[in-house]
Amino acid sequence: MAKITINDFFKKKAEGQKITMLTAYDYPFARIVDEAGIDAIIVGDSVGMVVQGLENTLPVTMDEMIYHTKIVSRAVKNAMIIGDLPFMSYQVSVEDAVRNAGRFLKEAGASAVKIEGGAEVAEHIRVMTKSDIPVMAHIGLTPQSIHRMGGYKVQGKTEESAKRLIEEAHIAEDAGAFSLILEAIPMGLAKRITEELSIPTIGIGAGPYCDGQVLVLHDVIGLFERFLPKFAKRYVNLKDEALRAIKTYKEEVEKGIFPSEEQSFK
Ligand code: KIV
Predict the structure, then answer these.
(1) Are 236 and 222 in contact (CB under 8 A)?
(2) What integer pLDDT is reported at residue 1 of this predicted model?
(3) Mean pLDDT of successive 10-residue stretches along the chain, which has 266 residues
(4) Virtual CA dihedral for 50, 52, 58, 61, nearest 10 degrees?
(5) What whole-number distance in Å separates Cα of residue 254 and Cα of residue 128?
(6) Is the preceding peptide bond at 59 cis, omega within 30 degrees of 0?
(7) What pLDDT is recorded for position 201?
(8) Any idea which fold 6-235 has?
């Protein structure tokens, strides 16, 4: 199977096939996600919360994102790899955005980047796209705006804010984004945006009518304990499995059961 490209995203939308996306941040999990046939892996700045143990995504640096994207790239054969521009890697200037987005493609093996925002980053999207960097935009709940939004809150619930999000979606598309993440918005609004846009929408907490879905891997496999967002689904509890295995190892070492002859050299 060939590497997934933005053309496959467009084809899937045209044919009504859902696009599947998950996060990954390291080699072993990127291998598993890729082997499962997921279309795209986003190396998200959610790494700050689910891997680095931070309160939010704001402290994550560009160099950390490059590090994680590099090791994900080494593992992946087919999935499209998308690097997530972290807080303050693009807000100050369009130049910053292009330079940092370029690093994802040049140094880390990504084939696209994601940027939070719609209208306020339209120029960034335009210039990155012109520089041959495919861009995924992200509207609705944008976690880098947590302080302005006053927390992780569902967006677009009033008529006025819904209208604004529809406008933002069109602005992102017109600026050249190849795809758009819709996070934590009512499903009816996501449906309308999905129907109006020609680029695929990827939902996270935006209901079933988006062209694709994305979740944070650690929510899906039960490795993030602090909270499970209402929109996420835990398909397995790896934390419990790992805890059981490690406790058994501890017990076996303490009782002299491990290592046995089988694990020893003669
Ligand atoms: O940071 C992240 O992981 C994300 C995805 C969930 C879209 O923004």
Answers:
(1) yes
(2) 79
(3) 95 98 98 98 98 98 98 98 98 98 98 97 98 98 96 96 98 98 98 98 98 98 94 97 98 98 97
(4) -130
(5) 57
(6) no
(7) 98
(8) TIM Barrel (3.20.20)
Catalytic positions are: 183
Q: Which residues line ligand 1 (CB under 6 A)?
A: 23, 42, 44-46, 84, 181, 204, 214, 216
Q: Which amino acid is at 100?
A: N
Nearest CA to ligand 1 atom 4: 44
**Residue 176 near residue 206 (C-beta atoms within 8 A):** no
Atom of ligand 1 nearest to the CA of 23: 3
| Cα 46 to ligand 1 centre (Å) | 6
What whole-number distance in Å separates Cα of residue 89 and Cα of residue 101?
Answer: 9
CB-based contacts of 188, cutoff 8 Å, min separation 6: 207
Structure tokens at 59: 């402290």
* Domain boundaries along the sequence of the chain: 6-235, 237-266
What span, in angstroms and rounded, lies between the C-alpha atoms of 142 and 233? 20
Report pLDDT for 11. 98
Whole-number Å distance between alpha carbons of 170 and 25: 30
Residue 62 token pair: 């560009």
